[in-house]
Amino acid sequence: MLSYRHSFHAGNHADVVKHIVLTLILTALKQKEKGFFYLDTHSGVGRYSLLSAEAEKTGEYIEGIARLWDRTDLPEEVALYINALKKINKGKLRFYAGSPLLAVQQLRPQDRALLTELHPNDFPLLRQEFAKVPNVVTKRENGFQQLKAALPPKEKRGLVLIDPPYELKDDYELVVQAIVEGYKRFATGVYAIWYPVVLRQHTKRIVKGLEATGIRKILQIELAVRPDSDQRGMTASGMIVINPPWQLEGQMKKILPYLTDVLVPEGTGSWKVDWITPE
Ligand code: SAM
């Protein structure tokens, strides 16, 4: 059932946009001294070798992180993310940090993380990666259920990243249901949902589902490498952020033109930052 392995896709253009948004949200949360809670519902393994057979097979990172790695003109918002990756690479790009590693790198002593992953092969790698890190708990649990089980956090501040594989079409509905459960318990939390655009009508189910919840302050951020298509393959991806830090909209409007040029030199790319529902 769980056939998706993120090791085939780590560092692709979708990861780049997702992880820049993640880094910017966490940076904003750290502007307050008070601790926060980070919940990563679909964690993956945390660290990926770009020299692995899986990464080599698809080569997706070559059209993603590798296009940014040696740039000397990075906007500061992108540099934050690249600098986090430099910490786990000595010079050459060999490893890619998944969302839990990027987030855990940013935790302060007063912050806390819960990382869940269901895959029987990936979970032990995740557990091992963070076994000795204080304030980080890993669990082999269903990530969607954590929006009931782990919220509200005692810190009363936090970010929930929901990053399912969408290999099951149900995921498009499950993310919306999970948000409803989470928001009931923790309405002031920041929620970030990653989504692919494979068929636009599937992505629209998330947007329409969220609109129907009545929740306000929902920002959509997207980068497309090609126009929408009925053919196989992901043409775009994005992040839907509920209660985004106030800076995020402007930051993404500033850097997405740059990212589109660098990640899509073929010239077929486009981007958008729009409110699904404003305040
Ligand atoms: N968030 C990771 C990152 O950015 O580095 C990547 C996550 S990957 C897109 C999705 C992960 O969700 C896979 O590792 C998959 O095994 C896991 N998964 C699938 N269904 C799940 C569920 N119901 N609960 C928790 N994990 C799940």
From TrEMBL:
Q: Where does S-adenosyl-L-methionine bind?
A: H19, H42, S99, E117, N142, G143, D163
Q: Which residues participate directly in catalysis? A: D163
Cite the SUPFAM superfamilies for this sequence. S-adenosyl-L-methionine-dependent methyltransferases
- Does Cell division count among this protein's keywords? no
Q: What class of enzyme is it?
A: transferase
The entry's keywords: Methyltransferase, RNA-binding, rRNA processing, S-adenosyl-L-methionine, Transferase
What InterPro entries does UniProt report for this protein, alphabetically? RlmJ (IPR007473), SAM-dependent_MTases_sf (IPR029063)
Gene Ontology cellular-component terms listed = cytosol
Q: According to UniProt, where does the site described as Interaction with substrate rRNA lie? A: Y4
What Pfam families has UniProt attached to this entry?
RsmJ (PF04378)
Q: Indicate the quaternary assembly.
A: Monomer.
- Name of the protein: Ribosomal RNA large subunit methyltransferase J
Q: Which organism is it from?
A: Frederiksenia canicola
